[in-house]
Every structure is written in structure tokens, then in C-alpha cells.
Amino acid sequence: MRTLCLFAMVSWLAGCGGGGGTGGGPDMAGGDMAGGTATPPSLISGDFVAFAGVTDSGWAILTDADKTAWAIKVSDGTRHKLAEHTSWATVLYDSALVEHDVGADGFGGLTAWFHDGPASELTAAAPDNAAGFSPPALDAAGHVAYWTRNSPTTALNDLVLDSLVQPSPHTVLIGIELSPTSGACWPFLRYFAGRLLGTYCTAAPTRTLTSWDAATGLAVDLSTSSQLGFATKANLGVLITSTTGDLTLVAADGSGSPRALGSDIAGAHIVDDGSALLTLTKTGGGLQRLPLAAGAAPIPLGGPAAHLGAVSLDGKWLQYTTMKDPTTFATDLYLTSATSAQTPTTLVAAATSFTLGWAFTDDSAFALYIDAYDANSFTGTLHALPTAGGAARTLGTAVYEDVAAGGSRVVFVDHYAGTYPDGRADVEFVDLAKSDAPTKLATQALSSFWTTLDGKTLYYVQPSEGLHIVALP
């Protein structure tokens, strides 16, 4: 479930390598089919080398050793071929995207899968590096936003909005650069409330935040001086922090009057229940809780901090950093109360921490964190600390990813070996509400795995065996 390039914000990809050859598009006639069985299988056999995830309708997106991508129904094993010469794949909601046949110029075809199919080809010239710099966006209704090359003589890209239900493409941005040198201007895209929201630069370094109607592509600018990214919450709207530090809440379609919430703000999070914001000031790095109820006063939380980290689902705990290693991008890490000023707990004192997955269990009872981060293997040592107090537990070493799986339950992969994209790792499960040590579920499986939202089912790939489907304890 982790992004393979460590940049994607809303999706989990299955590769960043190049492709080659021709004729790798989807089988539009319906693909190669395999008969179903009455009982859902616990193993779907195949020599799979990449696993992007499972769609809401139960289709696993897998790539085999021949670099052919497949949509496979997990309930009966039915298979549809999506593309040959696959470079990467991503799954979100009920959709999947597969990039294939990437040429020496870094552009290739982009195939889409929605619900029960069939597959469709969106463009023959999608930038392969979009997986790392600005991933395509998807929503639950089948809308998609993707990049396609501006012209055969340029590396610039256009942004296209379309529907996987009834195709109706609209080009909404023209001539956008996606490259390592354009980092401050990498577009950040996300669907929200039936619209595509995106920050991008038309003239670096000034970022615009635009809201496009998902169906028509009609646009309204929400900010002309936005920081990179934004936050959203149903029934609240879009939280915008300007480059000058003004904090504003606006409707996704730009209607109504913006609600000014503060100034001198460097960053802000919305707590899960939407009752408050957690903010970081530009001056002094102060942390505060800003209740959204009318007339409520801000609550100082301490500091100084350099960056806001994750917030627990109950809105009571916050992780933050004070420094970052400019070479590895690793940080130190602290845990503090998100409701009142308290002495913070030092999780990692040196700049050796890095986010490799979930930062809290779903019940907010434990903070999850990494130290001893290795920037070459993208791994570290995983720990869990009770938020109510107590000693931390070390869960695993050479951990590549961790995912909360309901309550205090966590799935993670450790003992990572090899190099991307061919790395392997052990799959582990632990219920931190109990004193039991982690249970090893698989040895040296693919490092990418998938858990259902209810935390009851785990999918992982064992090389040369196939996709395993197991019930979690």
C-alpha cells in the first residue's frame, strides 16, 4: 500500500521502471478469462512481481513476470488483461491506472480500469515520472485527472479531466513541467466534493489553487498564493494556507464568503471530527489548537516546531518535528497533546526518523514511529508507544511499511532485503492491546500488501506462488 517512489500522496503504486516494446494496451474485447469457483479462493496462483492493490469491487491489480498487468477478481479468479510492458500501476477506490510501453523519452500509454471493466486507454503519452512528482487523481465516482504530453517536441504536460463511466475529456491546464528541478511547483491534485482541487505554478514560485468541476472542467481559483497542498473536510470545505500565512476556509466551488481563521500560519491540519484545527505559526514555530466553534479561543500547545506531523484519529495527539537532515530528509520526532499544553515526549531525538506508514493506531492508543532510517533501502526500525503513558515496544527492524488495521492492530513488513522494485520482506501482524509478540504471516513476500478498510482481510504476494488472501486475527 505504499508509494513506490515515496512521493505519491493519494495512491499506492506498483512500480516506477521503464517499459519497452509496442502493443501493450488493454484487451478491449474483455481480456483473457479464467473460470470462477463457488468458494472464494485463498490463493490466486501466478508468478506476480508487483501488486498495486484491490479495488472496491474486489479486483486485484497485479503484474506478472512478463510485465503484463492483470485485473483479477479475488472472489473467483476471473482475469482481464490490462496492459503489457507495464511500468507502474495504482489503485484508489474502485479504479486502477496502469502505465505501459514507456519509451526512451519517458512517455507511455495509460490504461484505466473502473468497477467491473472493461479497460480503456486514456492516452498514449503519459509521463512515467508523474508517479513520483504528481500522481494522477481518482475519486469514488470514476472521475480521473491525468497528465499527457503537450506535444511530441516537448517534455511539458497538459492536465486532462475525464470520466471512466462516460468519457468526456477536458484539458484544463497546459504546459506544466514535471521534473526533479520543479519540486516547489509539483502539482498536488485531489478530488473533493465532486471537484478536482489542485495547487500548481503558472509562473514559479507562485502557486495557484484551482477548483475544477469534475464533469465539465469549469474552473474557479480559490487562491493565487497558496502553499503547496491543502486540507479538506466534508461539511467544512477547503482549508487554505497562503504563502504569507493567512489561513482561510472556503467552499470547494468557491461559493459564499471565505472564513478567515488566522494569520502568521506555516501549516495546519483539520482534526478528524472537524471540530478544530491544529496549526503551526511562521513566527517562533508555535503549536496551537484552534477550535472552529464561534467565539472559541485558540489553545496554545507549545513548541517550537518546524513541521506538523500526523494527528491521531481522536484528535488528542500530535506528532511534530524540529529539524530535518537535508540529505536523507529524515527528521527528529516528538509526541504531544493536541488538546492542552503539556511536556512533549521525545520519540526520536536525532534526525533519523521518517514516515513509512501510519503514525497512530486506529484507536489512537499507540503512536507508531520509525528510527534508524536507512535512506538507501527506505527502511527503519518500527516502534509503538502507548499514548496514555508507558514504555515503547520495538516491533521490527528493516521495516518498509506499517498500516493500522483497526483497534490497536497493525500490519507491517520487516526484514526488507533486495533493492526496489524487487525487494522482499516478511509480513507481520500485531495487536498492541495484547502483550503478544508480532506474528509472522509470510516470509520474504513482495513488500507491497493490501488490507481491507475493516481490517479483516490481508492480501499479499508470495513470489512464484501468487496472491494470498488471509483473514487477520
Give a quick summary of the entry.
Helix content is 1%, strand content 50%. It is mainly beta and 473 residues long.
Outline the structure in words:
- This protein has one helix and 40 strands.
- It has a domain at 354-473: Lipocalin (Beta Barrel), CATH 2.40.128.
- The longest helix has 4 residues, at 130-133.
- It is mainly beta and 473 residues long.
- The strands form ten sheets. It has a five-stranded antiparallel sheet, with no helix packed on it.
- It is globular, with a radius of gyration of 22 Å.
- Residues 2-38 have low confidence and may be disordered.
- It starts with 11 loop residues before the first strand and ends with a strand.
- Helix content is 1%, strand content 50%.
SSE topology sketch:
Layout lengths: L11 E2 L29 E3 L2 E7 L4 E6 L4 E5 L5 E5 L2 E7 L2 E6 L6 E8 L5 E8 L2 H4 L3 E2 L4 E7 L7 E7 L6 E7 L11 E5 L2 E9 L2 E8 L5 E5 L7 E3 L3 E5 L5 E4 L8 E4 L2 E6 L5 E6 L5 E5 L7 E4 L4 E5 L5 E5 L9 E7 L7 E9 L12 E9 L4 E8 L6 E7 L1 E4 L4 E9 L6 E8 L7 E8 L2 E3 L5 E6 L3 E6 L2
Antiparallel strand pairs: 1-7, 2-40, 3-4, 4-5, 5-6, 7-8, 8-9, 9-10, 11-12, 12-13, 13-14, 15-16, 16-17, 17-18, 19-20, 20-21, 21-22, 23-24, 24-25, 25-26, 27-28, 28-29, 29-30, 31-32, 32-33, 34-35, 35-36, 36-37, 38-39, 39-40
